[in-house]
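Minutes, methods subgroup
Present: GH (chair), OT, SY

1. OT presented the first of two proteins processed in the latest run. Sequence and structure tokens recorded below as shown on screen.
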Amino acid sequence: MQFEKFNPNQRLEKEYNGKRLKDKEGKMNRTITLMAMISILSFLFTPESFAQRGMKWHGSGNWGPNTQYGRLYNPQTMETISGEVASVDTITPIKGMSSGVHLLVKTVKETISVHLGPAWYIQRQDMKIAPGDKVEITGSRITFQAQPAIIVAELKKGTEILKLRDGDGFPVWSGWRRR
């Protein structure tokens, strides 16, 4: 049995010449091809994720000005009332809407239902409203579910003012969509 003398340079020449070199080139080509495929696929699926197709966009929760509920607001029926908040609730005015903040306000003449706006907007305001608060409300008097109600444009509590709609009844939470 003969043993070959170990020569490190000779071994390197054998590894990089012939099959070993071809294997490394093949692995590198496969890696580049795989990276290119991943890049192409990521570009194909990126617009879909930005557009959120397949996900439901909640938007205003149907609290916008041109929705069934939004069209109830009538600038011709504006009035101002003063009274004490009897209760604060969340309601869903019309099926398919997100929840909204609702007050019962006791005035000298009546106890009336008062609709502020979407809960996701009202709950993020600095002004907090609680039963027992004295308030002044300006808004559109409507008939909602056969009962009188007011859709609020502006609510005053002490020196605080919460503006919810402009003079035409356009909701402030929809302001970026205007025009």
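2. SY then presented the second protein from the same run.
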Amino acid sequence: MKRSLVRKKVSTGSLSRRQWLYTAGAASVMAALPKNGLARAAAAGAPAIIRGYPLADAQLSICLTDNLHTRPILDGVVKPDGVELMVSTAGPPELFWRQLNFAEFDISEMSCSSLIIAISHGDARFVAIPVFATRSFFHTRTQVRTDSGIESPEQLKGKRVGVPEYQQTAALWTRAALQHEFGVGPLDLDWYMERPPESSHGGATGFTPPPGLKFQYIPQGESIRSMLTAGKLDASVFGNVNVPGVRNLFRDTRAEGARYYRKTGFFPMNHTVVFKRDVAEKYPWAVRNVFKAFEAAKALVRRQTRDLSAVYFDLELIPAAQQKALDTDPYAYGMAANRTLLQALTQYSNEQGLTARVVDLKDVFHPAVLESPPG
């Protein structure tokens, strides 16, 4: 059963220093207003302390997957300025299905691929901030039957390949790597998708198989696991099957991931974070504040990583010369650090027939986070 829980911050009855200053300032202004001052306070010429600043934090709902980089926000250790988060957690398939179908949350984690597809179809309900808490070399998680005769990616051509969801970002990155690194295009494979339309992301975004693609849904009552075990599939993309007779396509997944990174400079992301567009328009100041909170949460995790690793350098279990590697942030947020990777993602989506055009990143991300502020 997927874990789904809700945590709500309990009010202590006390005000933060910022809230106290806002409240005290507002009280002073209100006292100075004439009798009809309350009505006039909402007018365009009212003092900024009344019009522009909240006297209490904006309450916004948020749903995230529970991982190392989101946990400081989920646990309330890091809080965005001016925002009280009502927190839920869910696994990716459930979360994306709920948000794409029902837009339940003001802020949520979101599949990069599904977001790009939705926007390409004219769905403008969501706008993203460049937060990417999960990354992987997804193509290294391709699995094959040991008796399939598949020893290299090139030998996947003509094979039956299972995939949880054809449009999911992990599958998109895997197909891109197979095509651009090994010459195996999507049309070279026979695809079997596990999730039926009614419970898939594609059901909400209007997914249809690209022209010429050999594609079918896995029959009801079957799964990638059962079909691999029975020999009805030869391989799977991101299926995470752990049964006898199935192994990783790449014998040394770490070496392949490192090779790919050295060649391309890509450490692919699969999730981002979105606001409902109407919420971002109502609270435009909250967009960058929430982004900064995610950056602060990641910075906390990096500090903890340094603290925990220090003893290994002190004992010379890890050579001191390698300590500089910790200066690199593999999970960098923001547009500047990720623009090339995101442009590749939108290009691959179009190339694979998931979108009819290359989606402009300006259509995906909120203008407040497209550029870095001064200082």
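Chair's summary of item 2: The longest strand covers residues 58-64.
Next meeting: continue with the remaining queue.
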